[in-house]
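S1.2 Input.
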Amino acid sequence: MSKAGPPHGANAHEGLNPAAPNLPARIVAGQRAAASGGGKSGAAREAANVAAISIWPTKAIGQQIVPFLHGFTMQVLPAIDSTNSELMRRARVGQRDPVLLVAEQQTAGRGRLGRHWHSDGPPAAGGAIPAQGKGSGAGSLTFSLALPLAPNDWSGLSLAVGVSLVRSLHPELRLKWPNDIWLDDRKLAGILIETASFGENRFAVIGIGINILPRAGEGLSTPPASLQEVLPELDAPAVLLRVAPALVQALLLFETQGFAPFKAAFKTRDMLYGRAIILSDGTTGDAAGVNGTGALMVHTSSGMKAITSAEVSVRPVGA
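S1.3 Output.
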């Protein structure tokens, strides 16, 4: 979910340091954002970039996160290819401090199994922008959180991230194994987790895309849901403020205790539990929840199977 070079040079702007309001912090406004600037002059793009980042609650988010995640910064880009891709590029050149990277538009967002994540664009007919969100230009919220992470067992991480998100948002939201958030049997949000090793250290990038406003469903087997259906008063910046601090806390808890603290909460939001499902390899059965490591348990004609492969796609029968 992202693209650009190191946060420096003419396209980096001084903003409020999330850790300390009186100290300057670098809030990137789009080194690769020329794609969103069209034929505008450099000065015009610069002004647009400053306006874009001013609506995001960088100070409030930083004040909640920095006490638990030292060295944390938040950056906002008007447009990028993929925030996940960008943070991995930065990590490969040594930039591995914790960072939350937000893109108001992604041109090549990615989902699980190589699927494309549709980011931003105009809302579907009837999709009104919340009053406080006018100017945010966000039909969706797309961001990635990158940080060093060293759990004893990585199993169940995407489920823990999902639990954190739904807890922060709305009780009607449900979790679809292994990395989707659904509302009324329609996809609302997706999670893409990537990791890389650098020496003895492991670096994780957690990418999240959430539909804020209604979106057209052409070409999709199931029309997407939008957060506006249950939280019409929230725009993308307000949603980010709700989910980001809690997500950091969840990741730090996962690092020390694994999936165990999230298992019960996942069960209460598990949209597949007890339903007939079909796997991408043609296997059918009844979903029976997840085990202690987050594997999907499926009762098939040949017995109970634990599904762990990230390459397996799962959907309810008839969906």
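S1.4 Remarks. The mean pLDDT is 80.
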